[in-house]
TrEMBL record:
One Gene Ontology molecular-function label: aldehyde dehydrogenase [NAD(P)+] activity
Keyword field contains Oxidoreductase: yes
Protein's name according to its UniProt entry: Acyl-CoA reductase-like NAD-dependent aldehyde dehydrogenase
Residues covered by the Aldehyde dehydrogenase domain: 34-495
Species: Novosphingobium fluoreni
Length: 500
């Protein structure tokens, strides 16, 4: 937790409000071509934090030109792997040196408690840049035995080359860490980047761009252009962008696929989820309840992997729900700058309306609200919404089938294991799943049967830069982290040399 986050926020606020935050294009802080700005809002108070330059299609065009020029510049294109790795390590060091400021900025802009922004966003970003800095000197091709014809002496080898200019579009739920997940491997692979943060949460992305320049990353290699949907569409459709990586909703992901056909640019998508939490009757219910509550209420449920569908065996369903409700009651709702807060606001009024409407939809469909479902008492300002549990849910209900992206858990019971698997897989999504049991055979059987990119057994929401992350079905294309992420930002070339 940053030391006295309120005091640090008060120290930062005059500078934030004194002048608009500018775009970063070609190594310089510049206003939008239109001269327009937009307000970024503190979700805990509903008040303006700062004005931000409103990037649009013209600004995207300038950023792409800068990124293309930087990509062709020998200062970056021919930089040795050791030197490129050193720049990423330097950027990680600068993030660490400015960790307190970044954590408070993220708390003010996104709403999650500063203790979480320090641990998840900032520390996670430091680890991500250091991890991918290590890949720079280890990512390459191989020599392959080939047999094109009898008696031929052929040397065949492959190389890995950067894909080119990458447009990176990141969401508002984990602004800094999602930026790091994409920027770090893109730069490690040798690409140049246009980073387009969500309009709700642009502040840490702009600060990251400033720190990258301070680290010595050449002008134009990392450009940051906050803006709205038109800026994102311009980035996707620009013919000189070679690769787009996007994290966000499945609906927008489909638009990106269509927009990318202009030059068949490469795409990776990390999209929505409706993750099942499966609890068998032999599970440790206390441990399961604590993790299930964290799995849906962490970051106010604004997590793509949120365990929003609970499938509890009928024999333990009621007891487990009581334990989960007890965990929800322990959450301390408030401004994330308060060290005691463990549950902050939703990111925006729009998101508050969305979550509230889904709870009402659930009621109309016949579900019962066990706890929550409304604005908490004493929190008239900001976008606070109580942690919510719905029971009596059925597989056909919208609250079971659609991603709410808020602190709403829909609980179902089961008795037949085969029907359980069918229900768990009866979803457009396949991002993640949780399984709770002490029966190792059942754990492995279910892990194999559930169609999801990540399956956690007796744990939930664990991630690491070393292991692939991504989803099945409409939860996305490709995998982030590890070697998989480096491959997303590279092309493989096969070279044949006749030695006969």
């Amino acid at each position: 937790m940053p030391q006295d986050a309120f005091a640090l926020a008060e120290k930062l606020s005059p500078d934030l409000s004194a002048r608009p935050r500018l775009l970063i294009i070609d190594g310089r802080a510049v206003p939008a071509v239109s001269g327009k700005t937009f307000a970024t809002i503190n979700p805990a108070t509903g008040e303006e934090i700062a004005q931000v330059a409103h990037g649009g299609p013209e600004d995207i065009a300038l950023a792409v030109t800068a990124a293309r020029k930087a990509f062709e510049n020998p200062a970056w294109r021919r930089m040795s792997a050791v030197d490129r790795a050193a720049l990423l390590f330097k950027l990680a060091d600068l993030i660490e040196q400015n960790a307190e400021e970044l954590a408070v900025l993220e708390c003010m802009d996104n709403g999650k408690p500063a203790s979480m922004t320090r641990w998840v966003e900032v520390e996670g970003s430091i680890r991500t840049f250091r991890y991918f800095a290590g890949w720079v000197t280890k990512f390459g091709g191989e020599t392959l035995p080939v047999s094109p014809r009898s008696g031929a002496q052929i040397l065949n080898y492959t190389t890995r080359e950067p894909v080119g200019v990458a447009g990176l579009i990141v969401p508002w739920n984990y602004p800094m860490s999602m930026a790091a997940w994409k920027v770090a491997p893109a730069l490690a692979a040798g690409c140049t980047v246009i980073l387009k943060p969500a309009e709700q949460t642009p502040l840490t992305a702009l600060r990251l761009g400033e720190l990258a320049l301070e680290a010595g990353i050449p002008a134009g290699v990392l450009n940051v252009v906050p803006g709205f949907g038109d800026a994102g569409a311009a980035l996707v459709e620009h013919p000189d962008v070679d690769k787009v990586a996007f994290t966000g909703s499945t609906e927008v992901g489909k638009l990106i696929v269509r927009g990318a056909t202009v030059n068949l640019k490469k795409i990776s998508l990390e999209l929505g989820g409706k993750s099942p939490q499966i609890v068998l009757p032999d599970a440790d219910l206390d441990a399961a309840a604590a993790s299930i509550a964290a799995g849906i209420f962490f970051n106010q449920g604004q997590t793509c992997t949120a365990g929003s569908r609970l499938y509890a065996h009928a024999s333990i369903h009621d007891k487990l729900l009581t334990l989960v409700a007890d965990q929800a009651a322990k959450l301390k709702i408030g401004n994330g700058l308060d060290a005691a807060t463990t549950f902050g606001p939703l990111v925006s009024e729009e998101q508050w309306d969305r979550v509230s409407s889904y709870v009402e939809i659930g009621r109309n469909e016949g579900a019962d609200v066990v706890t929550g479902g409304k604005r908490p008492a004493g929190h008239d300002k900001g976008f606070f919404f109580e942690p919510t549990i719905l029971t009596g849910a059925t597989p056909s209900m919208r609250v079971v089938r659609e991603e709410i992206f808020g602190p709403v858990l829909s609980a179902l019971s089961w008795t037949d294991p085969d029907d359980l698997v069918r229900q768990a897989n009866d979803s457009d999504f396949g991002l993640s799943a949780g399984i709770w049991t002490n029966d190792i055979k059942q754990a492995h059987r279910l892990a194999g049967a559930v169609r999801a990119g990540t399956v956690w057994v007796n744990c939930f929401n664990m991630v690491d830069n070393a292991t692939p992350f991504g989803g099945f079905k409409q939860s996305g294309w490709g995998r982030e982290h590890g070697r998989n992420a480096m491959e997303l930002y590279s092309e493989i070339k096969s070279v044949w040399v006749n030695l006969s």
